[in-house]
Amino acid sequence: MKEYDIAVIGGGPAGMMAAITAGRDSNVILLEKNSSLGRKLLLTGGGRCNITNNKPIKKLLNSFDNKNFLKHSFYTLTNENLLSFFEDNGLNFIEEDDNRIFPETEKSSDVLKILEDNLSDVVISYNYEVKSIKDNFIINDEIKADRIIIATGGVTYPQTGCSPDNYFLTSQPITDIKYGLVPLITKRDLSDIAGVTLYDVTVSYRKIKVKGNVLISHIGLTGPGIINLSNEISKDLTYNLLENEKVEFDERIAIDLCPDFTRDELKEKFTQDFQDKGKTMVKNYLKMFLTNSFIDFFLDEIDLDGQTQLSRINKKSKNRLIENLKNFTFEITSFNDRLAKVTIGGVALSGINPKTMESTSIPNLYFAGEILDLHGPTGGYNLKIAFSTGFLAGLSAGEKQF
Ligand SMILES: Cc1cc2nc3c(=O)[nH]c(=O)nc-3n(C[C@H](O)[C@H](O)[C@H](O)COP(=O)(O)OP(=O)(O)OC[C@H]3O[C@@H](n4cnc5c(N)ncnc54)[C@H](O)[C@@H]3O)c2cc1C
Q1: Fewest C-beta in 10 Å: which of 201, 246, 278, 400?
Q2: Domain count, the chain
Q3: pTM
């Protein structure tokens, strides 16, 4: 039997960061199911790796449902600490809109390379899937560790190594497992307008509103506005991926296509413009408010002939126009689960000490990253969770006197 101070299970960003931190003073083994580390990390940010979000720390924490839990890890490994770790290794960063941080080289492989280079003190076992952990911390009946850090990720993109089986490696309580940051499938076929982007619209589901771009795909809707809203829809629905195979529903989302105008402002503007520009065809007039390639579809949906001159539009049609500009609805029937970026739910936070990431019921067992019941919006928030909780778990397990 091989013996180690610490075994880290899972070589994603959380596991690698935990192993690097713990490996400074302890004898650490990193066990990875794949033949290489960080498969999901390589896909992040479309291959560019949106490594974190540079909002001030208090604002950053406010973006999460579980800010109190995350507080300690975020203050232990701040954005400054995280970025200077990579900068000290020769990788600089750029900040894009919405405080999103990317490596200057725009390559997630450069982030991975630095993590790998810093694992020189750690024994790495590739193609090693952990299937069991016995009470005496014996892994797969062949490796014994004093402390174990589980960082096996969530359930989405299974081709990167994730699996729901990992939730059952220990007796730690698990919350319902759901899709997060996931495109929505609409009842209506949208192939005619696939590729159209609606810029800076407000998308709402029940009372929740999210501002952002919406991208139309052949089968539904995606883009930051939609995938951030998808987290709220997913949390609202009752299902558990550990029990149900297919998630189907009949919900409705609304898009405010003109968030800069109130209904009253639009009404006033239309009344004036319909008089002043009476000969203008409605489809040309709408260019002021809508993306060009969306106008024909929009008019078709509200049953208004695009050739109609403004002066010929009656009060009922004018009101219908305003109502749909402010509240254009889509029926949604399921998630495009193949493209879900994160998992909502996981190891229940009530069983984890947020100051150490150690289980409160099983001493010397730690968790980090997406396996925990933690998720954030799109924009670098999820890698921030992985790196900060990974660092804290590695630090606590490494410092613990055994
Ligand atoms: C397409 C895509 C793009 C994304 N882009 C961004 C982005 O730009 N910014 C952002 O913040 N977030 C992004 N995310 C989310 C982010 O990638 C994840 O939140 C993050 O990778 C989670 O890190 P982790 O280490 O917890 O888990 P993972 O990265 O999933 O790593 C888990 C590791 O554990 C291994 N493993 C699993 N089970 C076992 C086992 N039983 N034994 C041994 N090894 C095992 C896996 O093979 C894997 O290597 C994106 C996600 C996707 C899918």
Answers
A1: 246
A2: 2
A3: 0.95
